[in-house]
Request: fold
Amino acid sequence: MSGRPENTLEQRRRLGGWLPRKEAELIAFRRDLAEKARGRAGLAPRTSAVQELAMLVEGDPVMRMDLTRAISDAIEAGYELGYSTIDELMDIIDYLMTYPPRFSEASLIHCPLNAVLDWRMCMPSGYAFFRDPVVNAKLKRVLNVWSGFLDGPHSREYLNTSAPEGWLSPKAQEQLGMSQFICDPDKPYWGFSSWNSFFTRRFKPDARPVAEPDNSKVIVSACEASPYNIQHEVKLRDNFWIKSQPYSLEEMFTARERDVAQEFVGGSVYQAFLSAFNYHRWHAPVAGRIVKAYHVDGSYYSDAESEGVDPGGLNDSQGYTTSVAARAVIVINCDDPQIGLVGCIFVGMADVSSCVIEALPGQQVAKGDEIGFFQYGGSTYCLVFQPNVVGSFVPHAPFDDDAPPIKVNAPVATAR
Reply:
């Protein structure tokens, strides 16, 4: 283990349950995946998006060097990856293009590609590789292909009631709270047309009532999510890559939207993360008119070096990801002029490739109206407020990672 304490691998902080906390469970998953990928390699051509990624890396000496070194450095540090070459990695990624997620009572792997890339991301060469915009453009294509599979009927293999892998088995129903959602147990696959339709399932009417819909001072949670951080006096530009990961508004909203970012200087940011079992649709935290709605291309597997060899993967880099990861930005001009603009930033992390915006500029929304959704993967989001708007937030630090999430449409802050 190259001098690394053995228990380092067993003390992982895995927010949201997207990956197991115990390294042994991830090792077993990677071994199994690698064996299946080797068995299929050569039987059919690789998916074009995966082959394009492979050709990009193999054809660029710097990229090939960075990824090769990230793999070898991780292995030399004592981490078991399930592969040792770029070619073997690409075969595993190709196998995942038709991989339907399965439930597990003991070791849920909700983000399989994140599990495969774990540890490479936080090697010195891995930091550089996973920040490269050309690499991320190819990764986006790969993830879109997988999302396309998850949109289709063949992705429903584990939408059944059979334990232990069925998402509709008794244990899974209990963890997911399926009784709260719109579904029909009398229909095949309970009426879900695909894995993604199951993942983005909707609550039954009145399952999540909007808190004080006529009181503009009560700001509600845009997602079913657990508090991660609250920061005040945010700056237009800050060193988001350092240990404290301060929010940098110009990076969050992007330089092309600098005028919008400027409106929030000196204001507050509330950030929360979604769990693998949470509802994944977004709702308006206030009533008002949509003035901005746009996507931002970015990274998918980029960690902050300031966290060291990050024992929590992307989890402990969530502040950093708000400035660099793929995300959707929606800005609402609240009907209450004393609240003004509210920025909603929905960040796709790891295996997320689709942040789907439904509310477009010019549209009027009521508090609690649906405005978009995460199609798949680990996710975090921010609400950004102008200076002197928020009187108090409902949650207070220190936050309990294992506490129940704040329900969507429940109070998250009170305006002055």
